[in-house]
Fold these 2 entries.
Entry 1:
Amino acid sequence: MTKAVIQPLESFRLVQYAEPTPCYICESDNTTDAEYCHICAAPMALAHQARIQKIRPQMIAVMGPSGAGKTVYLGMLMDLLSRQTAMQALARGAFSITLQQRTLSALARCEFPRKTPNEPDCWNWVHCQIRPPDRPGPLELILPDMAGEALMAEIDHPHSYRIVGEFLRKCAAALVLVDAPQLKEGNRDQEFFTQKLLMHLSELETDAAAARQRPVAVLLTKVDYCEECEDDPEEFVRLHAAGVWQQCRTRFPLHRFFAVGVAGSCAACDTLTEGHVQFPLRIEPHGLLEPFLWLLENMEKNDGGKRKGKKL
Ligand SMILES: Nc1nc2c(ncn2[C@@H]2O[C@H](COP(=O)(O)OP(=O)(O)O)[C@@H](O)[C@H]2O)c(=O)[nH]1
Ligand SMILES: [Mg+2]
Ligand SMILES: [Zn+2]
């Protein structure tokens, strides 16, 4: 005999699902309790955070081939920003601290952070508020640490990583990282990959004028291994990656070249499990803030009231 039980219907739960939450990146509707967007896998925390802000966050793409130094640069940049007193930077949501935490704890153990997985739900996203000293109001920014392989896959096969396509279409500015020591050694892959990225970025906007207004900072990474790029980064790119230099000149009137580095010196060894591994012996941040500040300045100039202060 089955015992009779009273099962509450809890129909109030249906009310909460009746109003969908749009994903901040692809704008698809999701349920209120979804952790990641069911279409593009962006964290829904971005949408929840953005909803409670008065200012719509702008997005900055951090692009470059796998191994160019995106994770190390972004993690260290966030740490530097959080320590600035002149320019207050405030992380939005606990998830925004993870990248900084993982990068810094790896560097403190004299290791580089682990390779970024290809799965978008494993990427670290940073949503922060920045208050530059000479600006009346704060800026809300979103920066994801995307995997180089995913970027390449989306460019070669559009829609394979929807999150990448949607993000690049909407980003207000881009930091493009290139491995300077590899360029110096004549590794043409770095040049071809960066050319593809720049071409893709410039062709995404349907409005050609808007595409040309997007500020692009090209960062030559790992200056500790390539000091010659420090003095004149633009000349270094012109000599070692003429295609990239040409693309920037023709497609992005607002561009600038920078030399950056996180490690002061490194040691390397061959391991059985991971192959050739590098260890940072000393942390000596070089020029990390400069490109970011240049980008912010140019994003503002560009805005012309279009994006700036846009209410949700
Ligand atoms: N010498 C040196 N090597 C670096 C530096 N930044 C990153 N690397 C090396 O580049 C590798 C890839 O860095 P990562 O940030 O994970 O690249 P990503 O794939 O673009 O995210 C690291 O494991 C380090 O070996 C740097 O400032 N100096
Ligand atoms: Mg990475
Ligand atoms: Zn989405």
Note: The two ends are 58 Å apart (CA to CA).
Entry 2:
Amino acid sequence: MADSFQLRPASAADLQALDALERAAFSDPWTAAQLAQTLRQDSTISLVIEEAAGRLVAYAFGRVLMDEAEILTLAVHPSQRRGGLGRRLLEGVLAAMAIRGIRFVWLEVRVSNEAARALYTEAGFIASGVRRSYYRRPVEDALVLKRDLSTFASARPPLR
Ligand SMILES: CC(C)(COP(=O)(O)OP(=O)(O)OC[C@H]1O[C@@H](n2cnc3c(N)ncnc32)[C@H](O)[C@@H]1OP(=O)(O)O)[C@@H](O)C(=O)NCCC(=O)NCCS
């Protein structure tokens, strides 16, 4: 990642920016209340990418359950896509999960979301099932993806 970007955990002070990012990235965004509640939970892993000027350009939430975890949401601002931030963010989330001893990571993705599917496939996720009509606006199936973290080796520390 270029030096002008910083990867760090999210805080309550980021909520307004997270809400704006969420609405810019998704057709059926989480509400501000859902974002705030998820951020407060002890089981949540949160990461944001901040520009040097202080603007948040990407974020991800994960949830840890025993030795498994789920990526709940992950998004890069439309103006910053295809610059490697999604890959860096995903690597940061997986590193944070690996350090907690997580063995398996799960996530759902819209079947039509080619960008995210390519990102996750590149990161070692494999298809594990389909949830019919899982999404709203528009209604769409979810592909369930799984990653075995026992083979995860990050070249970088989880945070910097
Ligand atoms: C999916 C998303 C996070 C990718 O972020 P990004 O910063 O653009 O991704 P990167 O630049 O790090 O790309 C990493 C790899 O992902 C794949 N990829 C990313 N965008 C892609 C696209 N539009 N089409 C095909 N492959 C794509 C490529 O393999 C890419 O590697 P490459 O650039 O060397 O070809 C971003 O498109 C996004 O925020 N989408 C909306 C929110 C979303 O769908 N989140 C996932 C919910 S499960």
Note: The chain has one domain: 5-151.
